[in-house]
Amino acid sequence: APVTDVQFGPMRLHRDQLQVLLVFAEEDEQSKGFCWACDKAGFGWNITRSPQAALECFLEKHHDIIIIDHRHSRFFDAEALCRSIRTTKASENTVIICVVQRHCDREESSILPLISAGFTRRYVENSSRMACYNELIQLEFGQVQAQFKLRACNSLFTALEKSQEAIEITSEDHVIQYVNPAFETMMGYQIGELVEKELTEVPINEKKADFLDTINSCIKIGKEWQGMYYAKKKNGDSIQQNVKILPVIGQGGKIRHYVSISRLCNDNNKVEKTCECIQAESQTDPQTCRHKDMRKGSLDVRSTTSRGSDGISQRRRSSMARVHSMTIEAPITKVINIINAAQESSPLPVAEALDRALEILRTTELYSPQLGTKDEDPHTSDLVGGLMTDGLRRLSGNEYILSAKQTHQVAGSLSSPISLSDIPPRITQAMENEEQWDFDIFELEAATHKRPLVYLGLKIFARFGICEFLNCSESTLRSWLQVIEANYHSSNSYHNSTHSADVLHATAYFLSKERVKQTLDPIDEVAALIAATVHDVDHPGRTNSFLCNAGSELAILYNDTAVLESHHAALAFQLTTRDGKCNIFKNMERNEYRTLRQVIIDMVLATEMTKHFEHVNKFVNSINKPLAALEENGNNGDGESIKTVLRSPENRILIKRMLIKCADISNPCRPREQCIEWAGRISEEYFAQTDEERRQGLPVVMPVFDRNTCSIPKSQLSFIDYFIIDMFDAWDAFADLPNLMEHLNNNIKYWKGLDGRNLRVLRPPP
């Protein structure tokens, strides 16, 4: 059998005899012509009469060329067969030809449907043997040879991936297009944080300007540069590298890429500090080296754009770009991506079946949270350990008794609440701008003597018509708010009724955003406001990990699982329903009450941090990305497709969970002074927990929160980087919150400024 060698840059590729599969339902002159042409060209060939036989034959032989008869639809659906073949891995580099009828009296038809089905090109019927032969020869030296080279690229990229040297490939404009795992390991970045970034955006190199000019003047004229320079890792450490930069000549004889090869300089690998230019030798054409990189970056919605874009429209595009770049690596995400890819080239029945499978995957509890930290920062490690785990098991007799015999405040034991119409002027003034994001909750806290929840609750609930929806009186609502507030611990520096009022305010603000209003029903708004009000009721000022380690009665009651969140939800309904004077649900119809109760419980449980990544992951994949795709395709109105995404019951659950999660930890997105105050309060609560753990001999869950050594700026930056930025990028892309994102950026700069000066306190010295 004829064998051909193919030159691919410096590689010499050995190619076996080409194999051709002919799919013709009936023998005719056209099929005979191709059989003759295959024999003359020295190609091996098979012929089949049905789609099933064709698929089986292809899976056995893996033909290089498939020619499918599309002239007679009564025999089989040629496009469906092509789509079926394209779903197989073996067809990735196969050339598929469509034989179509010749119509002399008709206008030329579009080839796009054939391309969409997976055909490489079409062949207008011509049974001339030489015409068939010429077609095969053109394919051999055109598409088939190109696909053969592409197959060889897999071996090249395997070599790159396994190379011990750090390799970086950039475009002619110095935009990073690829880095290998050795580069990721050396520099501390992940590929998703670098790809599509300009080199100037990534603070990797510490070369001086004149040194950079020397390198650029060398490589821009097509010469290699080799020498040593210092580079900066992601964590800020400097390393010395021996680097070779090679320009790659491509189309038009111009430089199209630069390849940088680096290795660390250590005691066993010293090189002199010299640089030299070497004339570039013949290079592989980069256009033939396409490779689909299957490695994904971490969840980093900043990976394609930098922060702080000018203008609202640019900022919105930036948010959408960050949403598209989110590649949260739960296994379920990989499964969904594989199914989506398979759908594109599947027959209609298969595509519909895959749609149903996707629907199931998106609505069941299959997403697992990511628990790994983004780096080795001890502040991040301690925050993850303290907020996302249920503590360290210990076999000591130490027990922390929480709420075991505690009596909770009830309506009868409280003084008569004040009416909304009788609120003192100072409090009224403090609540004047409660509809704005910059509303100052601490001013209201001072005006109400640490009872902001009753007053803010009365005003917000009145604005949303909660009494009318629940069919309860204002006096019942006032009693309920007072009972709930009385069961928040004013002794807690952070988890007190001011935090509850702050979360209620954020929830109301989010509910007023246009996209959210389009999505949620009145019962959802009522549930969200109630859930925000009660979400931390009776919080002891200690984390779930602490309670589990201490063997508290609550931890035992709730099996060390979502201990506090389960307690908040259960106690809220106990306090509400045990006394008719404050039972805001007493006049509701049974089924409506059960629905409302279910939503409230779900939202309160969503504030538990162990499922943080699960909730964000689902929101991005089921809401952000579908909406972004629709908007980019020009469906930016109130179309049915957008409404379907927004209004499905499953997606409304995800939106409500995301809403209360963002409201609960929105402190870094508040104006600076509020952000600083909240940072001080949560730090003090964590300091107190560390003190108590040491007093009781319990495991110290967050050792970094030692009041004598803790850097508050570092702890804030770690919390923001790990939990806040990705979540609020996703929420901003959905709800459009430019003011929050501006505050977030400003607060990040503030904490970085303090950290850069090695200050561990909330504010710089006078």
UniProtKB/TrEMBL annotation:
The keyword Hydrolase applies. Coiled coil: none annotated. Residues 419-758 form the PDEase domain. GO terms for biological process: cAMP catabolic process; cellular response to epidermal growth factor stimulus; positive regulation of ERK1 and ERK2 cascade; regulation of DNA-templated transcription; signal transduction. Its EC number is 3.1.4.-. Residues 301-312 have a biased composition (Polar residues). GO terms for molecular function: 3',5'-cyclic-AMP phosphodiesterase activity; metal ion binding. Pfam families: PAS, PDE8A_N, PDEase_I. Residues 283-322 are annotated as: Disordered. Zn(2+) 1 binds at H499, H535, D536, D664. Zn(2+) 2 binds at D536. It comes from the Eukaryota. Residues 152-222 form the PAS domain. Keywords: cAMP, Hydrolase, Metal-binding, Phosphoprotein. Its cofactor is a divalent metal cation. The active site is at H495. Residues 288-299 have a biased composition (Basic and acidic residues). It is an enzyme of class 3 (hydrolase). Interacts with RAF1. The interaction promotes RAF1 activity. Hydrolyzes the second messenger cAMP, which is a key regulator of many important physiological processes. May be involved in maintaining basal levels of the cyclic nucleotide and/or in the cAMP regulation of germ cell development. Binding to RAF1 reduces RAF1 'Ser-259' inhibitory-phosphorylation and stimulates RAF1-dependent EGF-activated ERK-signaling. Protects against cell death induced by hydrogen peroxide and staurosporine. This is Phosphodiesterase.
